[in-house]
Design a protein that fits this description.
Layout: E1 5-9, H1 14-17, E2 37-40, E3 46-50, H2 56-61, H3 66-81, E4 85-101, H4 103-106, E5 112-121, H5 124-143, H6 161-167, H7 169-192, H8 194-197, E6 198-199, E7 202-203, E8 206-215, E9 223-232, E10 256-260, H9 268-272, H10 282-285, H11 299-302, E11 319-326, H12 341-346, E12 349-353, E13 357-362, E14 367-368, H13 379-390, E15 395-396, H14 403-407, E16 411-418, E17 422-431, E18 441-445, H15 452-468, E19 470-477
Parallel strand pairs: 10-11, 10-17, 14-15
Antiparallel strand pairs: 1-3, 2-9, 4-5, 4-8, 5-19, 6-7, 8-9, 11-12, 13-14, 13-16, 16-17, 17-18
Helix pairs in contact: 13-15
């Protein structure tokens, strides 16, 4: 691992994007591929050195992580102009060619190396649609409908793409310029460390590319576009492909433990004050938009209480995700005295993880996940639902899984999904200490470690995602 992280910054506004179609570049030749990190807008370059060998906590709070970067912007620019809509794209890289070019050929004093890298950008159009919807939700809450364009009202089925493209054509063009600049810098890092990129000719590294749209202080309806990129270490690298496979199969990520976000006193009132994404209003609580379908950067800060290692992420259990819950409409208003702690918990619906979508495979083969409107519509979720529907499999994306179903032994497998890690199986679920219970307790465990349905779903989703990815070949010079 390199001893330091290097971040490169580009700064711009929309008007700049129309006149500056290329980025200033900086040669990056000494970076280890896991250490690459860059933040970007359009036209200025500001190198930032991030402290040596950061710990996990330091990393998550530093500019080296997308989360730390967005929290830094919120702290610097304030809650009105520092909170933005964002999206995270998976970008897979394969080095196609690296050939030396002599100075005689180019007319330069020094020899250079031409490098061609093939990038697969997952769900670019999906992410642009969701980004525009999220920004509209944010701006409408912040500045009011009268001061905003209006238009996109639903993310159901991602059916607003035509309107999105029309309303935000300039912003989407600028976003693609920012993405291109980040991919150029990432390609240089890969090229300088090409021996690390491939293992037997197979891709071993993924770029996590984050795009952030924040309101402009001069024109609130036009976003200021910024981006962040960092290589993401994954343990589910593709296996060696068979001769007839265009996309090598992906290994399943290591199983994780999940914790249900239950307050210490499990009552409707206590549950209502926990951080959550559904049903919040930005004007009232400076949290996220009124729709859980909006992906807003303030959630990076707001969710921190649910990551408390003394409660929701106890070190003894190595919790990898915290699951958000809600009390269903049919149970609201019930006299609290009718509940015991466990009875109240059993009424709850499971929605999503802090940074993931949740899926439960039932014993009868039904795959259930909470509906859009209650959860963020993630791209991996979108691919899985598409694939299951086309295969004629039972998929229920209208009714959230329930804890009562879990208690009744109706669950077979559980997994979460994210744009970068794709599919992560859950091996057990715990409840934090509640009421008189002094310690967490395991409430569900996978019946075995085979995860057959989860593996099948990931394989089909991965093939679909690869086939639908935008392919971009980038040439750079060292």
């Amino acid at each position: 691992m390199s001893s330091s992280y290097l971040a490169l910054a580009f700064v711009s506004s929309l008007s700049v994007a129309r006149h500056h179609k290329s980025f200033k570049t900086t040669t990056v030749s000494s970076l280890h591929y896991n250490s690459f990190c860059a933040q970007a807008d359009i036209h200025q370059v500001h190198p930032i050195i991030i402290p040596q060998s950061p710990s996990n906590d330091d990393y998550n709070n530093s500019l080296a992580s997308a989360r730390g970067w967005m929290e830094h912007i919120e702290q610097t620019d304030g809650p009105k102009y520092g909170v933005g809509a964002y999206t995270v794209l998976r970008c897979d890289a394969t080095l196609l060619a690296s050939s030396p070019i002599t100075g005689k050929t180019t007319g330069e004093d020094e020899d250079t190396t031409e490098v061609l890298c093939k990038w697969k950008i997952w769900g670019e159009k999906f992410h642009m649609d969701r980004l525009a919807f999220s920004f509209q939700t944010l701006a409408t809450n912040l500045f009011g409908v009268d001061d905003y364009r209006g238009g996109i009202t639903s993310m159901s089925g991602m059916g607003s793409s035509v309107q999105t493209q029309s309303m935000y054509a300039d912003s989407i063009e600028e976003t693609r310029l920012v993405m291109d600049g980040l991919l150029q810098q990432a390609t240089k890092s890969i090229s300088a460390n090409s021996y690390n990129l491939q293992h037997g000719g197979i891709l071993t590294q993924t770029l996590m590319l984050t795009i952030l749209w924040t309101p402009s202080s001069t024109l609130q309806s036009t976003p200021l576009v910024r981006g962040h990129a960092a290589f993401f270490a994954t343990n589910n690298v593709p296996q060696q492909p068979n001769n007839d496979e265009s996309h090598p199969p992906l290994l399943l990520s290591n199983p994780i433990t999940a914790c249900i976000a239950i307050p210490k006193q499990p009552t409707p009132e206590a549950l209502s004050v926990l951080p959550r994404r559904h049903g919040m209003n930005l004007n009232q609580q400076r949290q996220v938009g009124s729709s859980a379908s909006a992906k807003v950067s303030s959630w990076c800060r707001i969710r921190r209480p649910l990551e408390d290692p003394n409660r929701y992420k106890p070190l003894d259990y190595s919790v990898g995700e915290v699951l958000l819950v809600r009390q269903p409409e049919t149970e609201r208003g019930t006299n609290i005295m009718t509940y015991s702690n466990d009875n109240f918990i059993d009424t709850l619906e499971l929605l999503e993880g802090l940074i993931s979508n949740l899926f439960v495979v039932y014993n009868d083969g039904t795959v259930r996940t909470a509906p859009v409107g209650l959860v963020l519509p993630g791209y991996a979720r979108h691919l899985i639902i598409q694939e299951l529907n086309e295969r004629g499999m039972k998929v229920d994306s209208s009714n959230p899984p329930t804890i009562q179903d879990m208690r009744d032994g109706l669950w077979s497998e559980v997994f979460v999904t994210s744009a970068i890690r794709l599919v992560i199986p859950i091996e057990r679920i715990i409840l934090p200490a509640t009421g008189a219970t002094a310690v967490p307790r395991v409430v569900w465990e996978a019946p075995n470690d085979e995860y057959r349905a989860t593996k099948t779903i990931q394989s089909a989703m991965y093939q679909r995602g690869c086939s639908q990815a935008t392919v971009k070949n980038i040439v750079t010079y060292l």
